Automatic annotation (TrEMBL):
Protein name per Swiss-Prot or TrEMBL: TonB-dependent receptor
Organism: Anditalea andensis
Keywords: Cell outer membrane, Membrane, Receptor, Signal, Transmembrane, Transmembrane beta strand, Transport
Family from the record: Belongs to the TonB-dependent receptor family.
Keyword Transport: yes
């Protein structure tokens, strides 16, 4: 990486020809960390203007006057040297790092840069700092480690989805996921699963985290505008490992472990006898409400009879024990890297297997990677970055589904048996939890190829042309069968469905870069273009009526049906960037990108996304020289515009016709309803209104920041303030029904995100045998919907509302002020009125958006031991515990109770927020605010303890390094949330976040691992 950085700062010196007699001196400039040679080093004949710069492999050739034999060699980040040549015609020069000025190299869009010269807001995560964590996908590395990045795990299911927001949510119904770029290639991060089975899968789980060298999170417009239309939500740059010159290095890493729920579900349930007592109490209270007292007779002269006269004799079925299992995890990773002056290579393979907490969920990944760089000539280099993976998932119907295995385990009364006397599943109403866990057949197989080839041509010193061709090819196959032991299958005598989804993404990028330094000036100019095309195709088949559960292929079904769908989109782009520096203290960056998308109408197809940024390195000023305390001081500011086209259909701007059959329209969103055919004959009909005015969502962002280094950068601080204003939101707006449609996608609405970020890194102790490094980050984001066509509600029972003047993810409930100590009834907030009206007195109460998020990491190395501990936190966010809606009133004996019911009101004088027991109908129940809980948490996310064998010991067995370690994930969690896990996001959409419908919790994982280097 550093070599590429050094090349990015290539200085071209103009050599004056001398008529005096000269001799040719050739050589190479290297360093300890760049043994292959340093490109762009200034080599100057002392006392003259004769000079040159080293090429890609650090070589140079220079005409030196006969009467002068001293060369001056200099480059940013290294100590300058004067070399006396003498009579030599060949020379090798080794530069030493200048620890005072050598900065961290970070990856930026289409290049690399020294962090000290950045004008942008970028957070970095090194792969070495998060190696050997028991994680499934690279995006899990972002949790709590980058300021301003909010990461929620949508489910603890193996391979489950992640919800990532960089500096807030910028769209309401559009896509707010960041753009992922792997080794310069933007990839498709859409969830391609046809059936979510309660929770979406994670498309980034196809990638092996062990292959990652670094991750950069581009946050402000100066950093992201170079990616234009796809960068409104931020950009995550993933750089994978590459080979270096030297003998082959073989690395083998393996770990294995077990997992359990971090919080036992048993703490949330009541046993069978307690359930029956609570039911008796609920029915007694209902009787009293109707007839005046529990002792009163009904209209037929009958006394109250409890539904369970002998609760002490009730059976007790622990449904959690029946469906939960001890999870397991194991990973084996092997890689070899090396190279010489011509070719460098990195090859890796990985097998990862994880068994989930709820049967039968599991995930397996087999992946391989090849990164290759080949120096064809001193000025031409070609290479490839390619990864291939095959993943399989067995999934259980789980969270975000009322009849999922985990949901029904919560809701099923604990006095129900598992089986009937004849051995069939006991199922009086909903699905039996054990039946769901045992009889669900769902297999998902993903085959993915992400590859690119590139060619770098150094046209002349400082002028480089790169052309890249890349592909992201996805094949997703899903097979699902509902057998006759499940209600969904029994009604149809077996039901099956099969999906085959293909997504192909092709990109060609061509970039020309020119770099030059002269006197006090440095210039880097970049221009390029991108052509991208994406094709999507899905074929699906359905069948019902099977001869037996042993025949699950659709060909065996009595009734079969099949269909297919497909779409495509493309983007053409032109972009440019200019970086200018004066005396290494006044820095300017200007970006411009123009994108044309096929998703919009002809008049609005092009979007233009500029940005400008400046930085002042105050530390370089004469009045503020580096001292023993202050080692760096830089002030940054930027402003720019980025765009978003995600979340809408590929042909949303044009009118569409769709297939009709059997009187049902099979087309898109907002389709007309009515007769579509005659005598079940197929036909077509319009199903989407055209909107030629549809255009990009645009986000304008202002950022100001400061970077401070103290005590030779042993303590660094980065602070940023940002203001993001998004307009022309892509929304589904209602249209008059006289048009024959219900909605039309339009640009309407505005939203803002404002926030502050702080990142601190420190080296507390730095001794040869003892180091202690710590990092801390915290960020706050305030979201506000500023303009909306109309307020609307979403999610089951309209628990979530979007309204002007409030943040997204706001909960819409009836506010509970308490419980009447005398009656046990809820005291409702009447909003100033005398009488409570549930149709009027409903209001926004909290939001799922946290006030503060962040993390704290400590890493200690003492002799051969290493220790790491990482805490993640979220404060101020609310979570809707949707399970309590069912638990806390019983629903006529159809659901169980939670342990919270033990704190209910029972007699006059009781002080509690849980009302008296009652049996009510769900649909008629109010939405009490007590179900909206504080979702704040502090989590000991990762910790590890390792020991490396002394070199004299490991070398005896032919190993250059051997390390053994133990690690734990989600070891401890502090929270007031009463559900299974405060880190929930029941849906990947922007509208429904922080809702818990019995989502599978994060596992507490213990692992034992081994690292070997040969």
């Amino acid at each position: 990486m550093k070599k590429a950085l050094l090349f990015c700062t290539l200085v071209l010196l103009t050599a004056n020809l001398s008529w005096a007699q000269t001799r040719t001196v050739t050589g190479r400039v290297t360093s300890g960390d760049e043994p292959d040679g340093i490109p762009g080093v200034n080599v100057l004949v002392k006392g003259t203007s004769i000079g040159t710069a080293t090429d890609l492999d650090g070589s140079f050739s220079l005409g030196v006057p006969a009467d002068n034999d001293v060369l001056q060699v200099s480059f940013l980040g290294y100590l300058s040297q004067e070399i006396k040549i003498g009579n030599r015609s060949q020379i090798t020069i080794t530069l030493q790092p200048d620890l005072q000025t050598l900065g961290e190299v970070v990856v930026v869009g289409y290049g690399e840069q020294d962090r000290k010269t950045l004008t942008s807001a970028i957070s970095s995560i090194r792969g070495a700092d998060v190696a050997n964590l028991p994680i499934t996908s690279p995006d899990q590395l972002l949790q709590g480690r980058a300021a301003g990045v909010v990461v929620n795990t949508e489910s603890g299911e193996p391979g489950g989805g992640m919800n990532i927001r960089i500096r807030g949510t910028t769209s309401i119904t559009g896509n707010s996921d960041p753009l992922y770029v792997i080794d310069g290639v933007p990839i498709i991060s859409d969830n391609l699963a046809a059936t979510t089975f309660g929770q979406p899968v994670n498309p980034l789980a196809d990638l092996n985290p062990a292959d990652i060298e670094s991750m950069e999170i581009l946050k402000d417009a100066s950093a992201t505008a170079i990616y234009g239309a796809r960068a409104a939500n931020g950009v995550v740059l993933i750089t994978t490992k590459r080979g270096q010159k030297g003998r082959p290095t073989v690395n083998i890493s393996a770990y294995g472990g077990i997992s359990k729920p971090w919080r036992s579900p048993d703490a949330l349930r009541v046993d069978g006898p307690t359930f029956e007592r609570l039911q008796n109490e609920a029915r007694r209270n209902n009787w009293s409400d109707r007839y005046g007292s529990a002792e009163a007779l009904n209209e037929n002269g009958q006394p109250f009879v409890p539904p369970f006269p002998n609760p002490d004799q009730a059976i007790d079925t622990n449904w959690f024990d029946e469906i939960f299992q001890t999870g397991s995890i194991r990973s084996l990773d092997a890689s070899v890297a090396g190279g010489d002056e011509k070719i460098k290579y990195f090859v890796s393979g990985n097998n990862f297997v994880q068994e989930g907490l709820v049967r039968p969920s599991n995930f397996e990944r087999n992946s391989a990677r090849l990164n290759l760089d080949f120096m064809v000539t001193p000025r031409l280099k070609i290479g490839t970055s390619t990864t291939y993976s095959v993943n399989t998932r067995n999934r259980a119907l789980n969270g975000n589904a009322i009849e999922g295995a985990l949901s029904t385990a919560f809701f099923y009364p604990s006095n129900y048996p598992i089986y009937n006397e004849d051995g069939t599943y006991y199922r009086p109403f909903w699905e039996n939890p054990v039946a769901v866990a045992n009889e669900t057949d769902y297999l998902m197989r993903t085959t993915r190829l992400i590859g690119s080839i590139y060619a770098d041509w150094e046209i002349s010193n400082g002028l480089v042309f790169r052309s890249t061709w890349s592909i992201d090819n996805n094949l997703v196959e899903e097979d699902q069968y509902f057998n006759t032991f499940l209600a969904a299958g029994a009604a149809l005598n077996g039901s099956a469905q099969s999906f085959v989804t293909r997504s192909n993404n092709w990109i060609n990028e061509n970039v020309l870069t020119y770099q030059k330094s002269f006197n006090d000036h440095s210039l880097n100019v970049l221009v390029g273009n991108t052509l991208q095309e994406n094709q999507f195709l899905r074929t699906q088949a359905f069948g019902q009526g099977f001869p037996s559960n042993s025949f699950q292929r659709i060909e065996s079904a009595a009734v079969k049906n099949a269909s297919s769908t497909g779409s495509s989109w493309g983007i053409a782009s032109f972009f440019g960037r200019v970086n200018y520096g004066f005396q290494n203290k006044y820095l300017l960056t200007v970006n411009m990108r123009a994108d044309a998308s096929s998703r919009f109408g002809a008049d609005n197809r092009w979007g233009y996304f500029p940005s400008v940024a400046g930085a002042w390195r105050v530390i370089e000023e004469g009045f503020l020289q580096r001292g023993s305390t202050l080692s760096d001081l830089k002030i940054r500011a930027s402003y720019g515009i980025t765009g978003n086209q995600g979340g809408i259909g590929d042909f949303q701007a044009i009118g569409l016709w769709g297939g009709m059959r059997g009187g049902l329209n099979l087309g898109g969103v907002g389709q007309p309803v009515g007769p579509a055919s005659y005598v079940d004959a197929p036909g077509i009909a319009p199903n989407q209104l055209a909107n030629p005015n549809l255009k990009w969502e645009t986000t304008a962002q202002f950022n100001i920041g400061i970077d401070i280094g103290l005590w030779k950068d042993r303590l660094t601080l980065t602070m940023d303030y940002y203001d993001k204003q998004t307009k022309d939101l892509l929304l589904n707006v209602p249209v008059p029904k006289s048009l024959g449609y219900s909605i039309l996608t339009q640009n309407f609405g505005e939203m803002e995100n404002k926030g502050v970020e702080l990142g601190i890194n420190s080296t507390i102790i730095a001794r040869p045998d003892f180091t202690w490094n710590a990092s801390f980050n915290i960020a706050r984001n305030d979201n506000l919907v500023k303009r909306l066509a109309f307020p609307f509600t979403t999610f089951t029972r309209d628990y979530v509302r979007v309204e002007e003047g409030y943040p997204l993810n706001s909960f819409w409930v009836h506010v509970q002020e308490g419980v009447d100590p005398q009656t046990g009834d809820i005291i409702w907030d009447t909003m100033g009125d005398d009488v409570f009206n549930p149709n009027i007195h409903r209001q926004i109460f909290g939001s799922a958006i946290p006030r503060y998020v962040g993390g704290l990491t400590n890493t200690v190395n003492f002799k051969n031991f290493d220790f790491m501990v990482f805490f993640q936190f979220s404060e101020g966010n609310n979570t809707l515990n949707y399970g309590r809606f069912f638990f806390e009133h019983g629903g006529e004996r159809t659901t169980g109770y939670s342990s919270q019911q033990l704190d209910r009101w029972q007699q006059p004088g009781d002080i509690t927020d849980v009302p008296r027991m009652a049996s009510k109908n769900y649909s008629a129940d109010l939405r009490p605010s007590r179900h909206v809980e504080d979702g704040s948490f502090l989590r000991l996310k990762n910790t590890s303890l390792g020991y490396s064998l002394p070199g004299v010991v490991s070398s005896r067995v032919g190993v250059s390094r051997a390390r053994i370690y133990v690690a734990a994930q989600n070891l401890l969690t502090w929270t007031n949330y009463t559900g299974l896990d405060p880190e929930v996001s029941t849906s990947p959409t922007n509208l429904v976040s922080g809702v818990d419908i019995a989502v599978m919790p994060q596992p507490r994982t213990y692992t034992l691992g081994l690292n070997l280097t040969f």
